[in-house]
Write a structure and sequence with these properties.
173 residues, 5-stranded antiparallel sheet, elongated, alpha+beta
Length: 173
């Protein structure tokens, strides 16, 4: 969604007098959103008023990227600019290879074989990958062990956690 703004060029130097002000140098380009100009002028605003601004304007100095107020009598009207959202990249960023496995697309829901194995085995592949990536001291390559749902009774889960903990201690030595 693009919004309309007006661009001005500074004619004179202006030194900041208050905390909300921005300094100007002759030649600086300033962008003022139309909504900001209309808010300052109030109900008296008419089309064309932007060409000879009076009073204070609120905008962005494109040279310094500062936002703030500046006197409208210190600038000249340049024209209308359309400010839109940042353009999307024209090419997709490649996903780096997954440590210890083939390259896969990133996303919240596994598809295909990963989803099928997750449903059969009761283990989230995404959670295992997060654990692998979060392990700062561990090697990024670690075998992924899937446990069938039938083996996940409370006693087996406790044993499995203890086994994994002991394996991680062994790798750290």
């Amino acid at each position: 969604m693009a919004s309309e703004s007006f661009q001005y060029r500074a004619l004179f130097e202006y030194k900041r007098e208050r905390g909300d002000d921005i300094s100007l140098q002759p030649g600086d380009l300033l962008t003022v959103p139309k909504a900001s100009l209309m808010a300052v002028a109030g109900p008296e605003y008419q089309e064309g008023d932007e060409r000879s601004p009076k009073g204070w304007l609120h905008g962005t100095n494109e040279r310094t990227k500062e936002k703030g107020d500046f006197p409208g009598t210190f600038v000249e009207y340049v024209g209308v600019v359309r400010v839109g959202p940042p353009a999307a990249k024209s090419w997709p960023r490649p996903v780096p290879p997954t440590p210890g496995g083939p390259q896969t697309a990133a996303g919240p829901q596994p598809t295909g074989a990963a989803a099928a194995s997750e449903a059969l085995m009761g283990v989230s592949v995404g959670q295992e990958l997060k654990k692998m990536r979060a392990g700062s001291q561990e090697s990024p390559v670690r075998p992924l062990t899937l446990t069938p749902k039938s083996d996940l009774n409370p006693q087996n889960v406790h044993t499995l956690k203890a086994k994994r903990f002991n394996e991680s201690l062994q790798r750290q030595k």
